[in-house]
Amino acid sequence: MRGVVQRVRSASVVISGDTVAAIDTGLLILVGATHGDSHGDATLLANKVANLRIFADDAGKMNLSALDCGFPVIVVSQFTLYGDIRKGRRPSFIDAAAPDQAAPLVDLVVEALRSLGLRVETGRFGAEMDVHLVNDGPVTIWIDTADFRSPS
Known about the structure:
Elements: E1 2-15, E2 18-23, E3 26-32, H1 39-51, E4 55-56, E5 62-64, H2 66-69, E6 73-77, H3 99-115, E7 120-122, E8 130-144
Parallel strand pairs: 3-6, 6-7
Antiparallel strand pairs: 1-2, 1-3, 1-8, 4-5
């Protein structure tokens, strides 16, 4: 699974004119799944995100996590994180998991973040969404759970 983690001053998700998620200071996470991703990938991604030390401590150093600060999170599914642009000019999305595989994995990320004690809001899987954010820093971190697997 892949996640793009953005430290935000504010973020919201709007679908058909209705705001379905909104936070002030916290994290916006775009999450994508690929073939072969599992419950373990979802849990790993959630744990990495929740414990990622990207918020300033009293000394101004990035030393605190969303868990440490009690900051909320918005999770938005994003199959385009698996877009392949190596050939041509139009991305190929064959590496993105099919919706019936990806949706439960994104839900598992949300459940795992909540089980850690974070307040989590979400977009809507498969919907056309307007995602608004004020990136704080800017701080944007890329996490790919494949990077944590042992070579076979």
